[in-house]
Amino acid sequence: MFSVLICDDSQVARKQVAKCLPQDWDVAVHFARHGEEAVTALDEGKGQLLLLDLNMPVMDGYQVLEHIQQAGLHTAVIVISGDIQPEAHERVKRLGALEFIEKPIKPEVLSGLLVKHQLFVKEAAQPVKQLDRLEPAIRDCYQEITNIAMGQAGDHLARIFNVFVKLPIPNVNLIEASELLMMLQDIEDKETVSGICQGFVGPGVCGEALFILSDSSFTDVAKILDIKEEVDDRVQLELLMDAANILIGTCLNGLANQLDMHFSQGHPVVLGQHRNITELINTNRTRWRRTLAIELSYGLEGYKVQCDLILLLTEESLKVLNNKLSHLLED
Amino acid sequence: MSQSMLSDMSEFHWMMDMLQTVDVGLVVLDRDFKVKLWNGFMESHSGLLPSQVRERCLFDLFPEIDKKWFINKSRPVFELRNRAFIIWEQRPYLLRFSNYRPLTGTEDFMYQNITLSPLTSPTGRVDHICMMIYDVTDVAAGKKLLESAQVTLSEWQERV
């Protein structure tokens, strides 16, 4: 099996680089915490590709490159470093590195270079059954029924918490698995979040509701709920669950009423507290291909509270839903 | 009695029988949190007969329940007809029941997930809610074990 060696003194960086490797690349991944470990691993025959940091204790990246040159090892090296000076680029190229990637590393940059140097060959896209495009009229329907449902949800939130809720325009899109990640990263806006997800199912329709609250919102949420005690993790989980229950519940009820169906809701699952969005939904993102995402972003007037509710519906559910909605389109 | 009525009757009896034996705690509460219904699961795990709890306030029966907290959780159910979910990560249990597997179980008590669901009266008002108590001890124990294993593993990785 093709072997990839990731050498970086930071554990976070090692993990990040590993995460950036193409999802469908069947390789063995090895790690080294500094140059000396990398050299040992290379001597053991590991690392046909070496992803190398420059500034490290014990033995730095330049020394590793020198060693590879002197020993005449056939390993492809891509340097990944935060050192963005032109001189650094030139030096590593002179020492035989194929490419230089600046930190923070992006998956598309890495996979682009891997393809360019023929280290990774993208599998021919599987001929997949093309899903009917989302007709504008149908999209309108989804948007409208969500509008009504979230209006109810907003009203409920307003009544329980005694605040004015700024209602967003729902964003309805058919998206790929990778696009969901991008969409979530957009929400992230460089801060940590806490999330809850809850499965729901009705006749022929199933999906998941994701509720994401930015961590900076907690202070204000506690203020609104008149919580005097210190807002520790336990209290935050309570707040998260309360808000999720109300928003997910009323939104689903609103949709169900309009679709003339009933949704059962599973038990909510805590995706994580104070995490990066990408960490929250890293698991099993390969199981599905496409989803209808209904994205709702709620804000509260006068407060620094930002929460997002995303309803994700499976491809199979769309047939049933489109059918139900087509009645709305009839004159 | 006609054939169809008979079959309706037996279906009703089956349904009642199943609610009585299902391995989920079912309780109906009114707006004053007086117990209106108490199924077999609740009877077995609490040791209290339906006749002992009927028309009595939940908070009198179980003074260990955080009254203010529980009322807060049920408020949206009464007022908004919204289901409310409470998971074991928030509080391990609402009612302290002992572990379903007293000998081979690793935890002392039963971890519980709770769903509060509105019950609509014929007039459309929500005067009662249904509380469902699920035993999630194995899930909780598994997750705790996994988390401690992850911590050990990362400590070990740091040391190597």
TrEMBL record, chain A:
Residue ranges of every copy of the Response regulatory domain listed in the record: 3-118
PTM annotation (4-aspartylphosphate): residues: 53
Keyword Phosphoprotein: yes
Keywords: Chemotaxis, Phosphoprotein
CDD domains, per the entry: CheC_ClassII, REC_CheC-like
Annotated InterPro entries: Bact_response_regulator, CheC-like_sf, CheY-like_superfamily, Sig_transdc_resp-reg_receiver
Domain of life per record: Bacteria
Gene Ontology terms: biological process: chemotaxis; phosphorelay signal transduction system
Statement: the UniProt record of this protein carries the keyword NADP: no
PANTHER family, A to Z: PROTEIN-GLUTAMATE METHYLESTERASE_PROTEIN-GLUTAMINE GLUTAMINASE 1, STRESS RESPONSE REGULATOR PROTEIN 1
Protein name listed in UniProt: Transcriptional regulator
Species of origin: Bowmanella pacifica
From TrEMBL, chain B:
Name of the protein: PAS domain-containing protein
Domain PAS as annotated: residue spans: 13-79
InterPro entries membership: PAS, PAS-like_dom_sf, PAS_4
Species annotation: Bowmanella pacifica
One Pfam family named in its UniProt record: PAS_4
